[in-house]
Description:
The complex is a heterodimer of chains A (202) and B (191). Chain A has 8 helices and 6 strands. Helix content of chain A is 51%, strand content 17%. The termini of chain A are far apart. The model of chain A has no long low-confidence stretch (mean pLDDT 92). A 4-stranded antiparallel beta sheet of chain A has the order 3-4-6-5, covered by helices on one side. Chain A folds into 2 domains: 8-85, no CATH class; 108-201, Threonyl-tRNA Synthetase, Chain A, domain 2. The mean pLDDT of chain B is 90. In chain B, strand 4 (102-114) and strand 5 form a beta hairpin. Chain B is α+β, with helices and mostly antiparallel strands and 191 residues long. Chains A and B meet through helix 2, helix 4, helix 5 and helix 8 of A and helix 1 and strand 5 of B.
Amino acid sequence: MEKFYVTEEDVAQILKIPGNVKGTIILTNLEYLRKKGGESAIEKLKERIKELEIPIDLDNVKHASMYPEAVSVLIVLLIKEILNLDEREIFEMGKAAVKLSPITKILTKFFISIDVVLKKAPEYWKEYFDFGELEVTDYNIEKKYAVVRLKGYKFHPLLCIYHAGYFYQIGKITSGATKIIIEERKCAFRGDPFDEFYFAWE
Amino acid sequence: MKEKEGEIKKYQDELNELIDYINDFFNFLPIPVCDLSSTFYIIQINKAFEKLTGFDALDITGSSIEEIFSEKEKIKNIISLLQKNHELQNQELILVKKNGEEIIVNTFWAARIKNEKVAGFFLAFIDVTPLKKIQQEMEEKIRLSTQDLKEKIKELEEFHKIAIGRELKMIELKEEIKKLKEELERLKKKT
Lengths: 202, 191
């Protein structure tokens, strides 16, 4: 696997994209980095943030405060760079965001059942982001599938994999299923007007 | 607009405080505690859980609670009872730690109800393995002492039986001697 680096051009390009996210997403990704790479990996991330002049003070990020999503995305990319993660591990990091976030646990009203989580998905998205939309365009509880569409979100293709991991984990805890399938069937980076995920459980 | 932004900022600060408080309190608890989804998947664990079981949040969150207990039928029964009763206490189960070691835990379960629906469950447990070990040792000691006592009683009964038998024989012999003496006296008188 070719070594992945976040460049100054990546930073400049991504920072142009508007939209904010709750700090809890950044904090859970930091926790993932800490668990996988220890404190030295956190220090490495701080160094890279300074080098690339990314506007964030990692020591003062708060769960419920809002930060640019561009910064959050750049942190995901830097974690990939530092831990040398492949795509499967990016997917795992997306799953870990659900596992490690204290806000996920507070928002239990969404996790009563797969039915509730699908119905409330747009609301759930708005709990974290002040831009974009998450829609469930089709679902059938008996046939055990759902189609989830993410509109107005186009930062980096790796985030599609991260989101797939995130949706996978939410689906797993709410469906109670042992087998989960998630596929990105449409992607804004492949010329589609949005990202679309097909989700099925058994 | 500025006023609204200030209000939002105030709520965010309060929420941040609340999240920090919940996290600190959850991790302070000296007994293992975890949050379960309504489908009995592990959503959150505290530090005491990690310390006792050896699993960390990345290993175990998102797994079914059934996975950490070895008695599958018993746990299924608990799950079925919880769906009706919403609370269960003192349920002893065997927990399998990350390293494969089995420990006995006393579990406490309670449902979290939101809008009259089960939103999830809390599970807390206490490692009772050392207590169970002491209890087993005590039971073994009592069993051995009881066995010893039974043997002693048996010996005593046998001795008692022998002693009583001897006594009866003595009485019988004395009676015979008495009869013989009387016979002798009678014969003496005849001659």
